[in-house]
Amino acid sequence: xxxxxxSFDWRKSKAHLLLLSKFINGGGVDYFVKRGExxxxxxxxxxxxxxxxxxxxxxxxxxxxxCVTYKCKATELKDLLRQRKLNVSGTKDELVQxxxxxxxxxxxxxxxxxxxxxxxxxxxxxxxxxAASAREERIRVEQQVLGLLARRMYEEACLTVxxxxxxxxxxxxxxxxxxxxxPKRQIxxxxxxxxxxxxxxxxxxxxxxxxxRIGAAMMELWGESRASKWLPADFETGIALGNDSAARMLVFxxxxxxxxxQLSESGFVKYVEILATPDSCExxxxxxxxxxxxxxxxxxxxxxxxxxxxxxxVYLSRTN
Length: 320
Description:
Structural class: mainly alpha
Number of strands: 6
Strand content: 5-15%
Shape: globular
Strand order of the largest sheet: 1-3-2
């Protein structure tokens, strides 16, 4: 049973504002009603929150164009246009407009039964204010973390990210308790990112490596696969690996180093195998399927890897 006081103002609830923002460009009601995680963060059933949005004029039933846009990908819209012998050029909005004008009845049949809502002007204004505020907060925290990394304040950087995540409606990471986060593991990885130079990056100039270390550290802290947003706009590695791939090599090297240390400290792992990806280069595939004694394992990332994404091999433990 959920209870809100009479003074409850959903406009001050991050969860309610986030839900409202899902209807800026049209959103399916059933999707949010069926997702149980929304009940927990809202403190009430999703349909009740959505009903409040409707009653207060924040959302309304979506028009035909919005429904078609929501339902169809651009490729599907072009197929529909071709079937009607209509022009397939233009933006997605233009494709939808062309279909709706040429075959309104057909589009109504296509979207029949859809329970789609979209923000009114008032709802959109409120939702966009929330979205803009959320973006500004993220940028502010990222800049703070970048400053901490530049001063090698790894623990403070880790805890700043954890504090940010703990305040999100849906914190990143399945099962991660950001309010009781222990930064020890990530501090160890950050130390490796900033102190070690993987052999696969041996040809990278030290000045460029400094920028790349920052980008790689941010990738690790924020759980992202790309470093480009944190690198100078004109940054280029000058080696065969691109910016993001090279940054990932720093992260993978640190993670693999930690894996080996943990396996060694476990006391019961004697051997490791190397697992390559299906599209790995021939050099990486040659490392796979063999057992290596701890302390005699090939270095990962594989310095001889020739794949454009770099080496993505990992260690697997073997007890005998």
